[in-house]
Write a structure and sequence with these properties.
about 15% helix, mainly beta, four-stranded antiparallel β-sheet
């Protein structure tokens, strides 16, 4: 409350009391309310700088690879056939007939041999050089020398 407002209030009270003693009328007391008004404003307190650095390093990683190896086995048959044989599978083996025509009094088909072809996987150790990247973050805060 300002001092001028207080003085006005006191003058009003004393004048009302004076009138009431003379005429015995009602006394009116003014009710005063104060209010506050708050404002905000932006203040520059410094700045913050964030930077990122990418670093690289080489690292050897041990691992294994799978390779297919083919194994061929020659199996002699020397068997006479009435008609040509076709390639066939038995489990993981591919059997390819190798035939030959032989001239005799009559012509017959002889199974000379079969090729047994198997596929197997072999695990072999291997090393590879790889380039790995990593990010590092640096924060510079100009407010009060913080980092």
């Amino acid at each position: 409350m300002r001092s001028g407002d207080r003085q006005d209030r006191q003058d009003c009270l004393s004048s009302n009391l004076h009138r009431s003693s003379m005429k015995k009328k009602e006394v009116v007391i003014p009710v005063i309310e104060e209010t506050a008004h708050v404002t905000k404003r932006m203040v520059d307190r410094g700045s913050v700088r964030v930077s990122k650095v990418v670093t690289e390093r080489e690292e050897v990683i041990d691992t294994s690879t799978l390779e297919d190896e083919i194994e061929i086995e020659h199996v002699a048959r020397n068997t006479w056939l009435k008609k040509p044989a076709k390639p066939r599978r038995e489990g993981d083996t591919l059997i390819v007939p190798v035939m030959e025509e032989i001239t005799v009094v009559e012509k017959r088909i002889m199974l000379r041999e079969e090729l047994y072809i198997r596929k197997k996987q072999v695990r072999k150790p291997a090393s590879e050089k790889v380039r790995l990247r990593r990010e590092e973050v640096r924060v510079e805060d100009s407010r009060k020398g913080r980092r």
